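Problem: given the chain below (289 residues), write out its structure.
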Amino acid sequence: MKKGPGTPKGFRDIEPSLAKKRREAIAKIADVLESYGFAPLETPTVEFAETLKGKYGEEEKLIYEFTDRGGRDLALRFDLTVPLARYVANNLGVLDPTFSRYQIGQIFRGENPQKGRYREFTQFDFDTVGSVEPEEDAKVIAAAIKAIRALGLSQAQMAVNDRQNFKDLPAEDIRAIDKIYKVGKENTEARLLTFVENSKPTRNLSTIFEILKTKYNLNEGVDFFFDPTLARGLDYYTSSIFELKPTGKPEDLTIGGGGRYDNLIGVFAGRDIPAVGFSFGLDRIVELT
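Solution.
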């Protein structure tokens, strides 16, 4: 019988049995990432609102904003990538030229709750900053695949595309392509379906795929695949993009995603600093393990 107050919509208590599973999953993922050279980092839950705004495109409306007693405009962090960009910009000359980190933290988004999706959730990010080489994209993809295998998801595959495939399309077409499996092909314009059917891996993706095969012993069609419908909504991605699918089908709910974002950190640093990263959807992953 409930006698106490409830929790706000989209927020929840995590019972001991689930909390234990989450901790075990985090430990297994962290072990894999550290074997790939990623080190832990922690950043604040609260940022200045202006730090976050202008980075997420149409999703910016989901940011939780408030004003503190000092009249400062603050916000709960929307992801762990923008705080990383701020951290790197504030530590130029201190960090190694190529800096690899992972972070676990609570994220807040004012969206409609649904199965496996809450307004507060745990994100598990890892990124490499400072290198434009496709070897770093491949390393991020390989580390994510190895981590998900360590959790027992043997059928999971990484869907991969390149935002450069959409460089000549307007934003509304890109969003429509990204939603093909959500709305159905029958509800998608024929010209966009034709565009998708004619899409091929870019030269950059071909290089990444070759590294995944030769250096990390991963197999196309088993561990990763080219998905021409994949666009990802966040505006800061510039090249390779990828999403982890639990049964290897593009229509699966995503259990993690990421890509290359070579312009974001420069917004804070005042000069170009390339980066590539990935974020696990911990809640959805734990539900599957």
